[in-house]
Structures are given as C-alpha cells and as structure tokens.
Design goal:
InterPro entries: Mg_trans_NIPA
Distance between the termini: 67 Å
Number of strands: 4
Shape: globular
Subcellular location: Cell membrane; Early endosome; Membrane
Largest sheet: 2 strands, antiparallel
Order of helices and strands: HHHEEHHHHHHHHEE
Pfam families: Mg_trans_NIPA
Low-confidence stretches: 85-96, 309-338
Keywords: Cell membrane, Endosome, Ion transport, Magnesium, Membrane, Transmembrane, Transmembrane helix, Transport
Mean pLDDT: 78
Number of helices: 11
GO cellular component, one term: early endosome
C-alpha cells in the first residue's frame, strides 16, 4: 500500500468522526445556552456540558487520524477529504456529513438546493483527490525549517496574522453575530497555520521513530507551540460560530475556507505542486471551483430560509394574502381549529 493510499484511508475515516463531532458539540452548546451564557457572546458554560465533551472526544479521534494522514500524504490530498464521509447503511459517499446529520439530528433544514451544493462539493473533492501530487520526502526538521522561513511563506504568515488581528479587533465586535464569515475566517486562517505545523510535527515523529531523533532541535518545539496556540484559537472561534449560526451552513463554509487556505499554505511552504504537469494543476483548480460553487449554493439556501422567516402569509380559501400590519392571536392548542 502506497503512502498516498494510507493517507486517503485515514482522511476518509477522520472526516466521519469530525463531521459527527460538529453535531454533538452543537447539541451541547444548545443545552448549555439554555442554562447559562451562550458561547457566541463569550460564555463558557458549555465546558460543563457532557455532550459537548463527547463531541470534543469524537473530534480528537478524528483529528488524530487526520494528523497521521498528513504524515503519509500531502495536504492537497488529505484536506479536501474532510468533505467526505461514508454512510455505512447505504454504502454511499455523502458530502459534508455534518450538514446532513444537522438536518436530521438538529432539525436544521437542508433544502434541495443545499443537497445540490453538497453534491457539487463531493465532485470537486474527488477531482482534487484524483490529481493529487505525491508526498515529498523530508529527512530532518532543519529541512522543514528552511521551507518555513522562505520569503514566500513568511509573507503568507504575516498576511494571515494581520488579517486575524483585524478580524478580532475590528470586525468581530461589529459583525461577529451577523456575518458567519468573521468567525470562520479566523478559524480557517489559524487552521492553515495549524496544518503546516502539525505536518511538520508528524514528520518529526516519523523520523524519530525511524531512529533519527529530532526532539533536541528547538525548531521541533517551536512547531509544537505554534500548533497548540492555533488549535486553541480555532476551537474558541469555531464554538462561537456553531453557537451563533446554523450548523448545516457552518460546516460546509468552514470546510471550503479551511481547505482553500490550508492548500495555499501547503503549496507555498511544502511546494506540493512542484513536479506536477499543467493538466493536473488545472484539474485541481477546477475541483476547487466546483467546491466553491457548492458552497455558494449552500449559503444561498440559508439566505432563502432567512427571507422566508421574515414574512407571514395566510390562506382564506380564495387567495394568498399579506397580513403585514394586522393583529394576531397566537393559538397554542390545535383544538381551536376544530
């Protein structure tokens, strides 16, 4: 079995765990919000909710599988597979399993156009997988450090951190509760730095287990520190996003933003596209476009739901009429209709 195949299996397995964790954490956040301050406005009562911790445990299992997958395969292959999971009962591949689970477990509607968006994300992800590059061999943490300190990647890191600071200091207080992209942009930018750090750590562990110890190098501990800080920030803002917005929308948008930024960071740092022909690169770009199209469709279904919830109509037997400005009496008992 090739390294890419090992990475493929681990990535698909991790997507199921991680997708399920979204739903468990969302349900935990809902329960916590009913008895305390919501995470979306700075509350931390969810830390006392067992269901949220069950979601965290599920996510940890998925992230461990994902972590090992990055050791064997490039990010261009591993990261897009976060959109896939397997429904064992029907033996079908389903995109964005947390969006589908949210439809059934959280009663958050996923309309027909939303299903089309999910399918588009699947198609794009599969195209990317089929044209993924082979992993480059790195033999020491110093080689990884050389890649991390090249000018192009340092520019990316500076741009990412500057954007995160602007989002936290300026945009979050003003738009965090109304614009889903604020929280998810922070998660995704920090996530891209998390992945390249975790990939470096994975290579270090692999080399150490092979008898070439990398523990004594300061670069190893720097990568570990960066990964820890980025993961903590990701979890914090992901919790805020899940608590504030529909999980069926948070999951796919977060996936696309995280995937895109992670692959960009990996291409810059690890030069994943070096050695690939123009046809393969073009196919991967087409895959990204397809995935992004699916996300736009999913986001548009949320806007349609919000628009629908803002108007009320009633039926008299003859025609549909607006009742803006009318006076209403709420009926709590269906017996009134008999």
């Amino acid at each position: 079995m090739s390294d890419n195949e090992k990475g493929l299996i681990l990535a698909v397995a991790s997507s199921l765990f991680i997708g399920t964790s979204f739903i468990l954490k969302k349900k935990g956040l809902k329960r916590a919000a009913a008895s305390g301050t919501r995470a979306g406005v700075g509350g931390y009562t969810y830390l006392l909710e067992p269901l949220w911790w069950a979601g965290m445990l599920t996510m940890i299992v998925g992230e461990i599988a994902n972590f090992v997958a990055y050791v064997y395969a490039p990010a261009v292959l591993v990261t897009p597979l976060g959109a896939l999971s397997i429904i064992v009962r029907t033996n079908l591949f389903v995109n964005l399993n947390s969006a589908v689970l949210a439809h059934f477990m959280l009663n958050e509607r996923l309309q027909r156009m939303g299903v089309l968006g999910c399918v588009s994300c699947i198609v794009g992800s599969v195209v990317i997988v089929l044209h993924a590059p082979q992993e480059h061999n790195l033999n020491s943490v110093q080689e990884i450090w050389t890649l991390a300190t090249q000018p192009a990647f340092l520019i990316y890191v500076a741009a990412a951190l500057s954007t995160v600071l602007a989002l936290i200091l300026h945009f979050e207080p003003r738009y965090g509760q109304t614009n889903i992209l604020v929280y998810l942009a922070i998660c995704s930018l920090m996530g891209s730095l998390t992945v390249v750090s975790i990939k470096a750590i994975g290579i270090v562990i692999k080399l150490t287990l092979e008898g070439i110890s990398q523990i004594a190098y300061p670069q190893t501990w720097l990568f570990i520190t960066v990964a820890a800080i980025c993961v903590i920030m990701q979890l914090n803002y992901l919790n805020k996003a899940l608590d504030t917005f529909n999980a069926a929308i948070v999951s796919p948008i977060y996936y696309v933003m995280f995937t895109t930024l992670t692959i960009v960071a990996s291409i810059i740092m690890f030069k994943d596209w070096s050695g690939q022909n123009a046809s393969s690169i073009a196919s991967e770009i087409c895959g990204f476009v397809t995935v992004l199209s699916g996300t736009i469709i999913l986001h548009s279904t949320r806007e349609q739901e919000q628009a629908a919830s803002g108007s009320i109509t009633w039926y008299t037997g003859e025609s549909m009429k607006d009742i803006d400005g009318a006076h209403f009496i709420t009926l709590h008992n269906s017996d009134y209709f008999e």
